[in-house]
From TrEMBL:
Name of the protein described by the UniProt record: NXPE family member 3
Residue span(s) of domain NXPE C-terminal: 330-554
Alphabetical keyword list: Signal
Keyword Signal appears in the UniProt entry: yes
Recorded name of the encoding gene: NXPE3
InterPro entries membership: Ig-like_fold, Ig_E-set, NXPE4_C, NXPH/NXPE
Family: Belongs to the NXPE family.
Signal peptide (UniProt feature, chain positions): 1-26
Length: 575
């Protein structure tokens, strides 16, 4: 391009100007985030920062709200709270019979007989009713929805708008031709969501943790958490670098530095009254299908040949849904995906790469999948627990090193040694990075029982480390795997509901947008799939997640030209 410059000086001048503007813009964005980080440290003594408060009524619990935030951080935190604001029932105590009943409720496809074509929008209206069949007058129910074609193993999720009067509208994008079926389910009634919110704010101790302290022949076990109520003496294990809070009650005879491990204490029972428990019943109002009135399918016709060009130009990075399944293969809508069907394709892609997986068991599944599927990648026996790690696998022939480390406390694992408790932010600070380094991060599930502030703080620390890493080594691949949906019973709902995951996922996506990281949309990839929801998704879903990951590192080279040679269905990639 630059070689033509002598001929078209003016064009080149504008190109250069544009490039400079783009650079300055990017620099400014990073700068903003980074100073947000430093201000946190520097401004502490000044009168500028105020104690964290939010506009809404939030019951304060222990110490998270004593975070000192810079003005930028405070503003961000307020906008994050606004983004996850959820409508509440008008009264605190609604009798069960007046709560949302999925069986009496219904959905209806608008214009089900219309001439639908690939790329069109499909709209569905949902009307909620209570157990007496009366229409609900307020919103706040949590719905999940998808369109799917069983014979094509195709699926995609919908986006819900809550009218807050008992009606909801769901928007789908029709992405493949054929007969397409709509499914809508009630995950929790709004009356249940209100209780989940209350538990999040008032009972962050409902999942609790323990540590063993040991010295000589004396050993003691005490309870630990991000904060501990009461006046009993505590050991302060707050992280020196990140400020992430962690406390254990002080053992009676031993000193704090004799702590040797961390483990899941348990989940508290009896959190709800029997009346309240009615809002969480399997087979009644947890993840129950809502019936349709009228047809629940539409026929979608394929696109004609001449329409390809207009599709290519709609290439955009902020699309909903982000992708869909077709023949059980994930098709992201903003970039082409490569399918790594053979283990040798994976080996070739990862040749010379240093790969770090940080987070919870859902990213440990990537480690397990890769070591199982790629024979050259041999797991080393480090004597560590298979669940907790650290895990390591090598392929010395192709110079590949794969690591898994779990994130810092809280972890609901069986036992983690104190020496293995590392915060992701601190780990990132120890990585050189570069074009041969791939870092993938997932953190959500173990933080679902705490107020949102706890999660935001954790992400803020990780983001600060990511921004620094990308500054020193801009070519580093940093990939965030989002949360995923899972199976729910009455108990899991109170600790790990998809609603908790959805709220955290919303926050994570906002906080990590525009800083140059890649996303693997595990949320859509589990919700759109035909298989039942599972905390640990099946291999077919993991395979697709890894195809997305590997496509970031080893993209298809012949980008657009590739499109012209393939069949009609693929054209809808850029719809
Ligand atoms: C609910 O609100 C929507 C949007 O304002 C409106 O179109 C609809 O008619 C309302 N439904 C009922 C039952 O009031
Ligand atoms: C715990 O330690 C951190 C720093 O290590 C300190 O900032 C914090 O105030 C301490 N918290 C309590 C409750 O002692
Ligand atoms: C990978 O496997 C899938 C399903 O078996 C198949 O549809 C696809 O064409 C294969 N892709 C490549 C690149 O081999």
């Amino acid at each position: 391009m630059w070689s033509h410059c002598s001929k078209t000086h003016i064009l080149c001048f504008f190109l250069a100007l544009l490039a400079i503007l783009a650079l300055v813009h990017n620099f400014y964005q990073l700068e903003n985030l980074n100073t947000a980080g430093f201000k946190w440290l520097v401004e502490e003594d000044e009168s500028q920062p105020s104690l964290h408060t939010t506009g809404t009524h939030r019951k304060l619990y222990c110490g998270y709200e004593h975070q000192v935030l810079s003005k930028i951080e405070q503003k961000e935190e307020e906008s994050l709270f606004a983004a996850v604001q959820w409508p509440k029932p008008p009264e605190n105590k609604v009798p069960f019979v007046r709560s949302t009943d999925p069986f009496h409720s219904n959905f209806m496809i608008l214009n089900s007989n219309a001439n639908y074509r690939v790329g069109d929008q499909l709209e569905v209206l949902v009307h909620m009713k209570d157990y007496d069949g009366n229409p609900k007058q307020y919103g706040g129910d949590y719905l999940q929805s998808r369109i799917h074609s069983a014979d094509l193993k195709a699926g995609a999720i919908g986006r819900t708008v809550d009218y807050q009067n008992g009606s909801y509208r769901i928007f789908f994008k029709l992405l493949w031709p054929g007969e397409v079926t709509v499914s809508v389910s009630l995950v929790h009634p709004s009356e249940g969501i209100q209780l989940l919110y209350r538990l999040q704010e008032e009972r962050p101790d409902r999942a609790y943790f323990k540590s063993l302290f040991k010295s000589g022949r004396i050993s003691e076990i005490t309870i630990c958490n991000v904060c501990l109520p009461g006046d009993m003496p505590v050991c302060n294990f707050t992280d020196r670098y990140t400020g992430e809070p962690w406390f254990c009650y002080k053992p009676r005879r031993l000193s704090c530095d004799t702590r040797i491990n961390h483990f899941k204490g348990g989940l508290k029972k009896g959190l709800l009254t029997s009346e309240e428990s009615n809002f969480f019943q399997s087979g009644v109002n947890i993840k129950m299908p809502i019936p349709s009135i009228g047809p629940d399918t539409v026929i979608v016709r394929p696109l004609g040949h001449g329409e390809l060009n207009s599709l290519e130009s709609s290439h955009n990075s902020d699309v909903f849904p982000s992708g869909y399944y077709y023949q059980d293969e994930w098709q992201p809508r903003t970039r082409l995906i490569r399918h790594f069907n053979k283990s040798s394709d994976i080996t070739e892609c990862l040749q010379g790469k240093l790969i770090y997986l940080f987070g919870d068991s859902t990213i440990r599944q990537w480690f397990e999948y890769l070591t199982k599927f790629v024979p050259d990648l041999v797991e080393l026996n480090l004597g560590s627990s298979k669940k907790v790690g650290p895990l390591m696998a090598v392929d010395p022939k192709h110079n590949i090193l794969l690591n898994f480390h779990c994130h810092g406390p809280p972890l609901r694992f069986f036992t983690v040694f104190t020496s293995q408790l590392h915060y992701i932010a601190n780990e990132l600070n120890r990585i050189v990075g570069g074009k041969n380094t791939v870092i993938a991060i997932t953190i959500w599930s173990h933080l679902s029982t705490f107020p949102i502030e706890v999660y935001i703080r954790r992400l803020r620390n990780i983001r600060r480390a990511v921004v620094r890493l990308l500054e020193r080594s801009p070519k580093t691949y940093i990939v965030i795997k989002t949360a995923n949906v899972q199976e729910h019973g009455p108990e899991v709902s109170l600790f790990n509901s998809d609603w908790y995951a959805y709220q955290r996922d919303t926050i994570m996506r906002k906080m990590f947008s525009k800083i140059g990281v890649y996303f693997v949309d595990a949320w859509e990839m589990t919700l759109a799939h035909r298989l039942p929801h599972k905390l640990h998704p099946e291999n077919i879903i993991l395979k697709n997640q890894l195809d997305v990951l590997l496509s970031f590192i080893c993209p298809l080279e012949t980008h657009y030209r590739f499109l012209t040679g393939i069949h009609n269905q693929m054209w809808s990639i850029f719809v």
